[in-house]
């Protein structure tokens, strides 16, 4: 029977070896959390990097590693430290990531890392060819693997290949600065269907294809030789039930089975019933606007001093790509900002910011979502931002206010939240005032609409829509060839 082959750099689990024992932890990031739900409900094989380098895996543990991955429906692509350096920390996260998020000044253009990127993409393509049959459907994910579709198509012209980009596709003016822009576009065009989170990213991509490759684009279809490639937007949803059910269970927890975090948050609520908890959760990434958010919060405290001791900002930042210098600098900047703001405003009974720099288990994420009165998510640029959707899904009593950056892909579907420009501190401060004072009825009215939409356009629907479109596209292409 035909199956789906999912392929991404990051697998849904990350393996570690401690004292000869293999442990698996869930991966953080929208791609992994979203696709995990799709993968667990289907007969698919997920190919990717295990998080361990070749040098880290003793020969005798290799079979155990493969077995551990098989239990999660996964298969690994082995990468050396040098490959991870050039492909992952290098071209993927020092060239493409900053460029696609409009941080042009952070982008490094090095031919050595481009060469490694190509070689590693070929490794992923080979892994697909080795692990799949002719009629399997191949679904390639994200900016780390943009050359894979062309590499697979070259060997398997009849395969149905889908590609989904989880980050923004930048405007032509930004994309054209990349020395290897044409190679990247040709790589993507090996797919039969190319999906983006929003219509804007789709439009930017089509414009680059037209202007850089001079190809004929009619509406959202591209003609290349004897093939028709479809380009479309599919805004990714969340596993709505997983989050809303977890929140319901969370509320029923008795003191005995509450987590330490839930207990502490409850104590905080009881001792300061009028104080508002403001939450932000992101990977520690410059695209998320964490430093600006802290400055905006400081601005708010200065502009509206009457709210001192009445609000608390919880920042949960997950360590991410810490070998890349920009991430190390950002970590330092955030540490200093938190220290400065807490030093300036704290009183004996109040610390304005609680800052956690770590990954947390799912239960604790739910503790934070359900205990917070306001979510403040201010990315400077974000492909989607699933955290915004997860926050709303956990609000079982429909209270809570979401303040969300217009620069997040999810803002397109979340008009009922308070949308802000992350560079406009006055607007953020005013939105905080509006959120703090918003009547419960208004919160509930806004969240009722948001929840209905998120429940309907959940991650399952997203994956089904993409798959349906991919299979239709394969049919169209076959008919086109046989004409
Ligand atoms: P990105 O993909 O850029 O990291 P998203 O907001 O789309 O941003 O996705 C982040 C995902 O990672 C969410 O599904 C969220 O639940 C998960 N996540 C974020 N922070 C943590 C954390 N501290 N611990 C565990 N999971 C987290
Ligand atoms: C974003 C990217 C994903 C990536 C995730 C976490 O969501 O779109 O491809 O997996 O961030 O980043 P990491 O570098 O840890 O895989």
Automatic annotation (TrEMBL):
Keyword Ribonucleoprotein: no
Superkingdom, taxonomy of origin: Bacteria
GO biological process: trehalose biosynthetic process
Gene Ontology terms: cellular component: cytosol
Key words of the record: Glycosyltransferase, Transferase
Reactions mediated catalytically: D-glucose 6-phosphate + UDP-alpha-D-glucose = alpha,alpha-trehalose 6-phosphate + UDP + H(+)
EC number: 2.4.1.15
Pathway(s): Glycan biosynthesis; trehalose biosynthesis
Enzyme class: transferase
GO molecular function, one term: alpha,alpha-trehalose-phosphate synthase (UDP-forming) activity
Protein family per UniProt: Belongs to the glycosyltransferase 20 family. In the C-terminal section; belongs to the trehalose phosphatase family.
Subunit structure as annotated in this protein's UniProt entry: Homotetramer.
Protein's name according to its UniProt entry: Alpha,alpha-trehalose-phosphate synthase
Protein's organism: Arenibacter nanhaiticus
Full-sequence range covered: 1 to 483 of 735
């Amino acid at each position: 029977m035909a199956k789906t082959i999912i392929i991404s750099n990051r697998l849904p689990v990350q393996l570690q070896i401690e004292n000869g024992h293999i442990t698996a932890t869930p991966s953080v990031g929208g791609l992994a959390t979203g696709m995990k739900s799709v993968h667990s409900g289907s007969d698919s094989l997920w190919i990717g990097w295990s998080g361990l380098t070749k040098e880290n895996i003793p020969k005798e543990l290799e079979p155990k590693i493969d077995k551990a991955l098989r239990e999660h429906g996964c298969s690994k692509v082995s990468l050396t430290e040098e490959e991870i350096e050039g492909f992952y920390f290098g071209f993927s996260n020092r060239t493409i990531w900053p460029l696609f998020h409009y941080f042009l000044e952070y982008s490094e253009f090095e031919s050595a890392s481009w060469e490694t990127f190509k070689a590693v993409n070929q490794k992923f393509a080979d892994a697909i060819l080795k692990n799949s049959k002719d009629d399997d459907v191949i679904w390639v994910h994200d900016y780390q693997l943009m050359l894979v579709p062309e590499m697979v198509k070259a060997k398997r012209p009849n395969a149905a290949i889908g590609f989904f980009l989880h980050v923004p596709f930048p405007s032509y003016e930004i994309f054209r600065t990349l020395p290897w822009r044409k190679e990247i576009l040709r790589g993507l065009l090996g797919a039969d269907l190319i999906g983006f989170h929003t219509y804007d990213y789709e439009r930017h991509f089509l414009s680059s294809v037209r202007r850089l490759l001079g190809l004929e684009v009619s509406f959202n279809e591209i003609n290349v030789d004897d093939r028709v490639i479809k380009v479309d937007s599919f805004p990714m949803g969340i596993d709505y039930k997983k989050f809303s059910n977890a929140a319901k269970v969370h509320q029923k927890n008795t003191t005995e089975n509450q987590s330490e975090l839930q207990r502490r948050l409850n104590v905080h609520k009881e001792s300061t019933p009028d104080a508002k908890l403001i939450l932000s959760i992101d990977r520690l990434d410059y695209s998320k606007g964490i430093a600006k958010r802290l400055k905006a919060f400081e601005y708010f405290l200065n502009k509206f001093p009457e709210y001192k001791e009445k609000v608390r900002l919880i920042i949960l930042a997950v360590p991410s790509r810490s070998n890349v210098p920009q991430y190390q600098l950002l970590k330092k900047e955030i540490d200093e900002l938190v220290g400065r703001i807490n030093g300036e405003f704290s009183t004996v009974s109040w610390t304005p910011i609680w800052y956690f720099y770590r990954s947390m288990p799912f239960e604790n994420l739910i503790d934070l979502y359900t205990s917070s009165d306001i979510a403040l998510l201010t990315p400077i640029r974000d492909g989607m931002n699933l955290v915004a959707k997860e926050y709303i899904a956990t609000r079982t009593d429909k209270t809570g206010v979401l303040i969300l950056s217009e620069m997040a892909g999810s803002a397109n579907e979340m008009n009922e939240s308070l949308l802000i420009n992350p560079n406009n501190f006055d607007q953020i401060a005013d939105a905080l005032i509006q959120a703090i004072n918003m009547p419960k009825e208004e919160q509930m009215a806004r969240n009722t609409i948001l929840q209905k939409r998120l429940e309907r356009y959940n991650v399952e629907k997203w994956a089904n829509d993409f798959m349906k479109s991919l299979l239709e596209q394969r049919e169209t292409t076959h008919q086109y060839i046989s004409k």
